[in-house]
Design a protein that fits this description.
two-stranded antiparallel sheet, 7-stranded mixed β-sheet, Rossmann fold, binds 5-O-phosphono-beta-D-ribofuranosylamine, 9 strands, alpha/beta, 35% helix
Length: 211
């Protein structure tokens, strides 16, 4: 019998990916997993409200409360470790994970990126800006990626990806919405369910999924 997967979900904004995870657990599309805590760097993040509405502990660890980034990073790692989780999920999280976090949770931090890595990723590629660049380049297909987090930016082993067609009349907003609905909110819960049920391993930096 597999041990229940305990998660901390890190959020910064609207929390629609957190909501997708909580809905999937409630509807049984994620099994053998629980969200122990939602943690945000942003006290105003609606994601914290979503957590509370679902009876999940919501905690804010704000950089504004710490003298410098070093002290903030320490507080963030200590807060996460205090919940004794097995997996850290970055769901719309704008905070760069400190090295100490990566070392404490090797291949146990996952992130959802709103593009098909290695396209439109890396420093500065987050949120709406990703979709602005997609439209500027004129690609016909974009999508989302769930990957393990390593010390780079969007460079860790890829777990799942899902493609989404770009429509001729898309704006960054309409494209972002469709990528969230048709890709992010599908593959993030699916990746968590696969991990929670022991179907994901990393071999030579490549993810192997045993359905
Ligand atoms: C979305 O663009 C998502 O792709 C990115 O963060 C943004 C907000 O996500 N990861 P959420 O609604 O806070 O989950």
């Amino acid at each position: 019998m597999l041990k229940m997967l305990k998660m901390a979900v890190l959020v910064s904004g609207g929390g629609t990916n957190l909501q997708a995870i909580l809905d999937a657990i409630r509807e049984g599309r994620i099994t053998n997993a629980s969200v122990e805590v939602a943690i945000s760097n942003n006290p105003g993040a609606y994601a914290l409200k979503r957590a509370e509405n679902c009876g999940v502990k919501a905690v804010c660890v704000s950089p504004a409360s710490y003298k410098d980034r070093e002290l903030y990073n320490e507080a963030l790692v200590q807060t996460i470790q205090s919940y004794q989780v097995d997996l850290v999920v970055l769901a719309g999280c704008m905070v760069v994970m400190p090295k100490a976090m990566i070392e404490a949770y090797p291949n146990r931090i996952i992130n959802i990126h709103p593009a098909l890595i290695p396209s439109f990723c890396g420093t500065g590629f987050h949120g709406l800006h990703v979709h602005e660049e997609v439209l500027k380049r004129g690609v016909k297909v974009t999508g989302a990626t769930v990957h393990f987090v390593d010390e780079g930016t969007d460079t860790g082993p890829i777990i799942l990806q899902k493609a989404v067609d770009v429509q001729p009349d898309d704006t960054p907003e309409t494209l972002q919405r469709r990528v969230m609905e048709q890709a992010e909110w599908q593959i993030l819960p699916r990746a968590i369910d696969l991990i929670a049920n022991g179907k994901v391993s990393v071999e030579q930096s490549k993810v192997v999924i045993k359905e």
